[in-house]
Amino acid sequence: MIDGRAARWRRRVRDIGAAAAAGGAPVTYGLIALCGAVFLVSPLSGFNPSYGPADALLAAQAGYFERWGVIPAELLDGSAHAVLTPLTALFVHGSWLHLLGNLLFLYVFGAMTEERMGRAEFLFFYLFCGYFALVSYAVAHAGSDQTLVGASGAISAVLGAFLYLFPRARVTSLFPFLFFLPLRFPAWIVLVFWFVLQWLAARDAGSGPGVAYLAHVAGFAAGFLYAWGRYRGGVRVKAPATATEGESQP
């Protein structure tokens, strides 16, 4: 028998999931649309002929990253432009795979998190934690001149907040060592597993080109701690729920 509190939690997560599924997450969907639009008009999508042929296109791509991405060595110099780049970099992606992977995670976990936090707070949370994640990476690699772009830090924060707010919500996940079979697990198992993978990868990663795992770790921790500090006195949805589905790997 389910006690009254568990029943209320179950109804609450269903209401949150239903509201999010009914289009009640305009900030999440707006961020997805903005990231997609920015990528389509950039020299990285291949859809804008104004950037010219091969050599000119490569030069345009390099200049695009330098203008809008985070360069740790320049960020810590404190120029006005460099200080803004952790915000602009959140909307810049290096490839179709980078873009689609991030937007899938934002779509899956962002809507319910936004519904729980509210529109304005979720937008502030996303930008603040994303900024923090990129700055954390820059501080740890202060001498690097490699450009850092992408929404991964902010989306990792969404995952961290989701873990705190909906620890027993069930998500559909694909694990390579289980032959990519779609299996449903509690969110806390999937997200803790994901975080451990990012942590282990961050320990072995250098400051050169590649995935900024440290930004993922910093963003996830910031998101979890934000939700813990902001909502620890309120209602956490602990009852099992089936309101959301996602993949286990970014």
CATH superfamily: Rhomboid-like
Indicate the CATH class. Mainly Alpha
Distance between the termini: 37 Å
Tally of separate domains: 1
Total helical elements: 10
Outline: globular
Strands ordered across the widest β-sheet: 1-2
User: What fraction, in percent, of the residue positions are helical?
Assistant: 55-70%
The name of the CATH architecture is: Up-down Bundle
Order of helices and strands: HHHHHHHHEEHH
Keywords: Cell inner membrane, Cell membrane, Hydrolase, Membrane, Protease, Transmembrane, Transmembrane helix
InterPro entries: Peptidase_S54_rhomboid_dom, Rhomboid-like_sf
GO molecular function, one term: serine-type endopeptidase activity
Pfam families: Rhomboid (PF01694)
Provide structural commentary.
It holds the Pfam family Rhomboid. The protein is mainly alpha-helical and 250 residues long. The chain has a single domain (24-228), classed as Rhomboid-like (Rhomboid-like fold), CATH 1.20.1540. Helix content is 63%, strand content 4%. The chain has a two-stranded antiparallel ribbon with strand order 1-2. The two termini are 37 Å apart.
